[in-house]
Fold these 2 entries.
Entry 1:
Amino acid sequence: MNSTIPRITIFRIRNLAWLAVLIATLLPAAAAPLVQTNETQVQTNYTLTQVVPRSIFNQPANPKEGCDPFFPTSVRPYASAVVPNAPTTDFSSLSMQGISGSLDHRLAIINNVTFAVGDEAEVFTPQGRIRIRCIVITDDSTVIEAAGQRQILHYKPR
């Protein structure tokens, strides 16, 4: 006859022992009488109001006021907060090469890219790429928008 205790019973005994220790440590704290002093009075009926502290971060104007804690040698925090003027878009290199489509669905070809009304795409120019959006297409012109500026391109047949 084997006198070993099954493994599951050992785990149950161990868990009960831990539970007894936990109860023994919590009972004296729960049974302790409420202490009332002149400075603080502990009440049984109270409402918890949690105040969330606000973090305030000041941007340093120079190295004496502070630095970036992760990049202490960086001068980025002291950069001017002035936003440079937006560059103006040069429309001189845009040319309308053709108009096609039916009367109710016009298409315009601008720098080898085909646009319908509402389409937005990048076109290549000698100065680089320009992202434009087609606003209106008429029989001989197109209104486009790039970087918040509108321009009319006229079709000049060759």
Entry 2:
Amino acid sequence: MLTLHVALSFSGLLVGALLLVDLLGSARRQPTLAGALLFSTAIISVTGFALPSPPGTPTPDPARILGVIELVVIVIAALALYLKHLTLAWRSIYIVSIVVAVYLNVFVTVVQAFLKVPFLHVLAPSGKEPPFVIAQLLTLALFVVIGAMALKRPRLAADMIKATI
């Protein structure tokens, strides 16, 4: 189960990166790419629930709370894309939801890197030391910038026409 979860996580990160690039510059929407991100992120969260919590994990388990939050975020993104067709405010809701979903995947990746990669673990063995905090703050700042840039990107003419109908 762990191998499947890790493989899905890496594929979700790749698809998320591609979708963020698309949000920042593409002249067309990529519903297939978005669907792949939403599906892979849902599966990542669900398979994560099946994994045992490490010894000493507080109750409630922060990883499971994050999984639930991520599922809510991707449901909102799916609603905005597939039911509301990104019209009016739903475009912004979709962008924010996608950026948050990918950010949460990267957040977990940074946590896992500090737990599993020896030279990073030495820098922050408890996950509360400055190198870990700095890495997470830089990650957050990057995603805030990506989200702001994606929100500022002009709407496509087709999106604007749909919004007026």
